[in-house]
Amino acid sequence: MWGKLVHWIEIRIGLEELVNKHLRLFRTPKGANFWSTLGFVSLIAFIVQAITGIMLLLYYVPHPEYAFQSVQTITNEIPFGWFFRSIHNVGGNLIVAVIIIHLVHVFLRVSYKKPREITWVTGVLMFLLVLLACITGQLLPWHQTGFWQTTVTSTIPSFLPVIGEGISSYMRGGASVSGITLSRFFSFHVVILPVFIVALMILHVLLIRRQGLSTSPAVEPEADASPPEEFRREPHLEGHPCFPHFSVKRSFMVMFYFTVLFFILTFFPNLFLPAEANIQADPLLTPEAIRPAWYFLAPYQLIKTIPNDVMGISLVVIFSMVLLFWPFLDAKDAGRNIRKRPMLLSLGLIVLALWAIFTIWGMYS
Amino acid sequence: MMRYLIVTVAVFVAVFLTGLSLASYRETFEKEFMLSPWSIAKGEVSACIQCHTSENMEPRIHQHVQEWRGSWHAKNNVSCHDCHGGAPEDASMSMMHQRGFKGAPKDTEIPQFCGTCHIAIQDNYIKSGHGKTFISTGEGPSCVTCHGSHNIQQASMDIINEQLCSQCHTYERAKEMKQALFLVENKLNTIANDLKRLKLFGIGTDMQEKAFFRNHAEYRALFHSINVDAVRAKSSEYTQKLEIIEAEINDSFKQLAFRRNFSAYLFLIFIGLGIVVLLLSKSYEQKSS
């Protein structure tokens, strides 16, 4: 029966050739480890968000009068609605964590260098868009936490000179967070941002498929990793076929992702849903403590700490720009082995340490 | 390419640094979002509070605002004008009688003053020994005797205590009342805590909260009659009503347990799958080496 089914598919789409061409013949480099699979885990995390988001969309009503109640209905009355909502909520935080780790790994392996600059830029752009998706998503349940987080987040751009007020006003659709903001954030969260993220994702994956995965400078000799002057796909003859070797590694990391997801759902179900997240948004009543989500705590604390907020917000924007275009700013002639580049390693570690310090500081300030 | 990027970054820096002169933003930013305590509701920003906390006022007047800030009223967003009337949004007209300003009530007006909101409690109080004595003699306990005026806290059985009651009469009768209230009050407290816990986990408790609030208010109103027999007679009725709410709460806890178990089940499945896939990965590595 199984053989007949496979044959039926085979004569119609040539499955065997497809698997051979795209998985068996696509070789991964020597030293490709579990860390190298984080891009794939991010993709799976995005698909999980898309599926659970669609399930929520079936019952969600994007109107200030009904939004909170519709989310309550999803959580408490729709069969397994709580399950989809919890996964979407926790998954939204996990995807940011996975992308950050992926970004750090790529940085430490200096995989962004020629010819992979565009891959890096599309990756960072996707990261920024995912953060925007998180900002827009937190308002949709129309609870106190989301409402006041949005109020704070949408105020921050207004401190940029010239364009700041315009950005804030565009985000809110007026002077304060209102039904227009909800409608606007809803459109961005469910249509506009996902379309851009998917487009960038296609480009990102296409580039990886065309160029092949980058080698680990610690495993491969430095001379072999010199930047090419013309296009060539790295054959990775000493490596392994993507299927089954690397695919199994990917599967393991996906299992690990789901294990973490369900661990949080089991033991800390309201880790990302504080008490105020169960109270309908009230523009006249500010909650006792309101902070941005954990991934925004560092920039939030930075803006609070720096004596001039224009300087603070400027630093955040400049940092994002430097991160986005880093492959073009890094020394062209330097090698890829970060152990031989103490300055770059120090820079990376200092930025990471500062990010961690500002995040913890923001959490307790 | 590199040059263009450096120029772009330089332009960004230049534009942002020119904005350094716009320091007035900081004041608004800090005031509105960064340094102001989030616990203060916007309703508090009123002419009443601004004036009553100004340096020109006596410390006694400052004290009223301080006490209110820590009160159950403040926690429930009940502000000065909700009791004293007036126009908090308009400093010049805030204390005009034409704008509904009532000011501080005379002692004899206190039950009516509080009864504007606590209607059922006022009705029972007026019919009680406490109320009759207060109305006929102008002496005896009014609302503020037990609950205070500005530092009003959430009422509990602790208000009935020997120190307070024995100011006017012996504690014996009050003790009897406390005993009569004990079971139902205990149940009310348990339900209140359970509802808080369920809410924290995102379980919808609107129906139970409404039913709880109704029973809670009715029972508290009944207590103000100071009629031990009436409280005893009604206690079993309220116990039954509260048990219905408790049963619904228990169902919600079961639902919560199901959610946790379901997630734990999937957690274990993925641990198992992870181990299998890891072993598979190791075996492929061994084969290829």
Brief summary:
With 365 residues, chain A is mainly alpha-helical. Chain A contains 14 helices and 2 strands, in the order H-H-E-H-H-H-H-H-H-H-E-H-H-H-H-H.
Task: Give a verbal description of the structure.
- The complex is a heterodimer of chains A (365) and B (289).
- With 365 residues, chain A is mostly helical.
- Chain A has one domain (32-214, 236-364): Cytochrome Bc1 Complex, Chain C, CATH 1.20.810.
- Chain A has 14 helices and 2 strands, in the order H-H-E-H-H-H-H-H-H-H-E-H-H-H-H-H.
- The radius of gyration of chain A is 23 Å and the shape is globular.
- Chain B has a domain at 171-289.
- Chain B has helices spanning 2-18, 24-34, 47-52, 59-69, 72-75, 80-84, 110-115, 119-127, 129-137, 143-147, 162-165, 172-200, 206-223, 228-288.
- At the A-B interface, helix 4, helix 5, helix 7, helix 10 and helix 12 of A face helix 1, helix 2 and helix 14 of B.
How many strand units of chain B? 0
The domain tally of chain A reads 1
Strand order, biggest sheet of chain A?
A: 1-2
Could you give the order of the helices and strands of chain B? HHHHHHHHHHHHHH
Strand % of chain B is under 5%
Rg from Cα of chain A: 23 Å
- Overall mean confidence score, pLDDT of chain A: 89
Provide keyphrases for this structure:
heterodimer; A: 365 residues; mainly alpha; Cytochrome Bc1 Complex, Chain C; 14 helices; 2 strands; globular; B: 289 residues
Secondary structure: elements and pairs:
The complex is a heterodimer of chains A (365) and B (289).
Chain A: H1 2-13, H2 15-24, E1 27-28, H3 38-57, H4 67-76, H5 81-108, H6 117-139, H7 144-155, H8 164-172, H9 179-211, E2 240-241, H10 242-267, H11 297-305, H12 309-324, H13 326-329, H14 342-364
Antiparallel strand pairs in A: 1-2
Helix pairs in contact in A: 3-5, 3-10, 4-5, 5-6, 5-10, 6-7, 6-9, 11-12, 11-14
Chain B: H1 2-18, H2 24-34, H3 47-52, H4 59-69, H5 72-75, H6 80-84, H7 110-115, H8 119-127, H9 129-137, H10 143-147, H11 162-165, H12 172-200, H13 206-223, H14 228-288
